[in-house]
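TA notes, week 10

Several of you asked for a full example with nothing omitted. So below is the full record: structure tokens for the whole chain, then the designed sequence directly under it. When grading your own attempts, check the secondary structure regions first.
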């Protein structure tokens, strides 16, 4: 089984704005809202405009321009029950969740939604969220070792009976979950996502996840990560799909798009960005090889807090579609999009950008299943 192949078409996801402050840490107007009613309307708009996934963020403590937050798993279930097709991914922190408890919640959510619940395992960068709750803060690679066990336990509980698992962080003894998730050919067990940039994150993604999420990257950065993650997957005969974060500014003219980006950065909430920068770059630089998330991010990068500007999905619909198609040919299976004004921009994307992506893909059908292009 090869793990290096090009998908037939790119899937699209969007960041659920269940956290206040929008997707950029800036005082620019953002016509978006973190509340439930807005998000229900947005979820329905997204699924009607070609989006297959949504990712609910996880933040427990007010910080860095994100004063208010809705909890990710409950919010995800609410959105699932308000939609028909959309798959909703709930971000969760090992260390704040026991995996068997999440497995139970996930199985219930899977049944209630007809098999549309998914999980994104995030190992954590915000030390205060752990220490303020009286939980130990582990060193970087130890957090990812815990996440590796978390991923394994979730999958075993969802697929096996009489589960025994004896790890350094989790001990499961003769445990059987019923009902298990639906697990049909059309709706397999809840998909497991692993995010990160570091060596430890890549290993987890390749060995244990269904999907690997990357922060924003240019072509070379994406190619390097894909080869690495899928190399880990190949050692166990697995296949892992690759998701890439990108902040999307699609406008009728390139000039208008670039001016919007310039205004976002010019109006950045500097204290909030600097506070976030100090916290995350401590986490990213704590790895021995300096490959952690945000380790080399600039101030401008961090105005969009997952390096979304780096993916350069900024310009006219034609320019963005061509760039997405180029990422696909490097092995990207999914684009996780953030927007300044979610409701109207997702509609614009669905009407103006996505059809162009599909047209390009149709002309490149002979590349489906081919090895990933790793050169620029």
């Amino acid at each position: 089984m090869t793990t290096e192949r090009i998908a037939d078409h790119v899937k699209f996801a969007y960041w659920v704005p269940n956290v206040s402050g929008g997707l950029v840490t800036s005082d620019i107007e953002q016509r978006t809202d973190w509340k439930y009613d807005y998000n229900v309307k947005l979820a329905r708009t997204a699924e009607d405009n070609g989006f297959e996934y949504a990712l609910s963020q996880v933040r427990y403590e007010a910080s860095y321009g994100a004063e208010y937050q809705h909890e990710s798993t409950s919010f995800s279930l609410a959105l699932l029950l308000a939609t028909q097709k959309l798959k909703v991914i709930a971000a969760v922190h090992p260390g704040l969740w026991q995996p068997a408890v999440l497995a139970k919640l996930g199985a219930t959510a899977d049944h209630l939604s007809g098999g549309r619940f998914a999980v994104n395992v995030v190992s954590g960068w915000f030390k205060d969220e752990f220490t303020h709750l009286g939980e130990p803060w582990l060193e970087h690679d130890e957090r990812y070792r815990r996440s590796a066990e978390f991923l394994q336990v979730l999958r075993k509980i969802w697929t096996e009976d009489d589960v025994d698992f004896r790890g350094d962080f989790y001990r499961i003894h003769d445990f059987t979950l019923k009902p298990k998730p639906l697990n049909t050919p059309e709706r397999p067990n809840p998909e497991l996502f692993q995010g990160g940039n570091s060596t430890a994150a890549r290993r987890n993604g390749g060995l244990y996840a269904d999907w690997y999420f990357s922060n924003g990257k240019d072509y070379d950065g994406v190619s390097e990560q894909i080869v690495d993650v899928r190399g880990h997957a190949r050692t166990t005969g697995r296949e892992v799909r690759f998701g890439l974060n990108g902040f999307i500014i699609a406008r009728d003219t390139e000039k208008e798009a670039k001016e919007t980006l310039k205004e976002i950065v010019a109006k950045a909430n500097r204290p909030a960005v600097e506070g976030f920068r100090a916290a995350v770059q401590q986490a990213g630089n704590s790895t021995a090889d300096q490959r952690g998330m945000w380790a080399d991010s600039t101030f401008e990068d961090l105005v969009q807090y997952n390096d979304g500007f780096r993916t350069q999905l900024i310009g006219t619909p034609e320019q963005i579609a061509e760039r997405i198609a180029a990422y696909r040919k490097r092995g990207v299976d999914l684009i996780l999009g953030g927007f300044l004004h979610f409701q109207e921009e997702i509609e614009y994307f669905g009407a103006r950008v996505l059809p162009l992506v599909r047209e390009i893909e149709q002309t490149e059908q002979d590349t489906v299943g081919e090895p990933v292009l790793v050169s620029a």
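The mean pLDDT is 91. Use that as a sanity check on your answer.
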